[in-house]
Give the backbone structure.
Amino acid sequence: MSVRQGLLALLADAPMHAYQLRHEFEQRTGGTWPLNMGQVSTTLDRLVRDELVAPLDVDADDVVRYHLTHTGRAELERWWTTAVVRSAPARDELSIKLALAVSAPGVDVCVIVQTQRTETMRALRDLTRLKADLPASGWTREDLAWSLVLDHLIFAAEAEVRWLDHVEARVARATDKGIVLAPRAASGELPPAEQAAREHVADGGAR
Amino acid sequence: MSPRATGPVVLALRGVTRVHGSGASQVRALAGVDLDVRLGELVAVMGASGSGKSTLLNVAGGLDTPTSGTVTLAGSELSALDPTGRARLRRRSVGYVFQDFNLIPALTAAENVALPRELDGVRTRQARREAHAALSEVGIAELADRFPDEMSGGQQQRVAIARALVGPRRLVLADEPTGALDSVTGEDVMRVLRARVDAGAAGLLVTHEPRFAAWADRTVFVRDGVVVDGTGERGGPEVLLTGGVR
């Protein structure tokens, strides 16, 4: 998440001081990513160093207001007109957990999937409830911003539920085909998935 | 949305099993399903195609009869009624919403909504009055005189929701109600369905879209005719405090 570009976008509207910037940032992104003053100050310092932002004036309380420079405006324009780069995927605990589960002894992948789907569905429902609290019509700019942020979280949760459905079907098919899902447990006993798969193969075959 | 649903149970399924066919071709569409839907509660059913979720909806509405187990609708057990009684109970207690709206093209919105009441034996003027009230509740009172082909998909689906809950009907069974709608319109329809349930109805919703199921108080997942897991009872507002958003 880019605080740097976010502050540039806010300063394009009007000159602001650091507290105003923090307040506006949270207002306009639905309060989902709270900033602390340290982040705002550090980012402002860097923006000033890079000549994207400059101090405009100082009020009676010695508070500095900042404004956008020409270079800053050009940098912001570039941000609006180029796509956000989706680089290497972030390390995701759930995908790592499932990847390890299919090869771990004595682990029932289906149970992991069901437990996770329930949890993700619950999160999706809670996000949807937040959206239901928005008025049905007559939105303010803040309502619209908040709804877009919520929608992002909602679509991401939905994608996870769909992916979990897919994992469940994939694992079921792999088991049907007699693919052994887990190595022999240390105790020498077979994990349930492997036991089932082996019995299936021993029974003589493909369904 | 309402707090935790504590209203009376409108629909109760107990040990419901439905077997299609016999012998080697026998298919067990439902296998021992228990489910309660209370007044003020919207329950979503999810599952892959062939999981049994459509059978569940048909059995719940009395359109299909379980092989074993009981379905209790508005306090009456369906299997205890004769076919006429069952049909009457079904007609007066349950409304349906389908993916493709199923409005009668030759009737206006108000006439479509009034029709079930006229079939109930209510006089035309009273049925019209109730239809207008039902259309107001779904936010389209001004479209009462339009024909289905003069309305958008989202508007038609609102008419269908109004028709499903017109008069004394308190249970709406919705089968993929957002299936023919774009994402934003689908959301509007779910908002209306949610509001109608909150205002005093019960709903059972079959969908394959998690985003729309999320408008329900809880979601049950069906696989091979069995409810495998569910999101459980809806929590109070405290669930939002731990979520890390707003």
Observations:
- The longest strand of chain B covers residues 9-20.
- The beta strands of chain B are 9-20, 27-38, 42-46, 68-73, 76-77, 94-97, 171-175, 202-206, 218-223, 226-230.
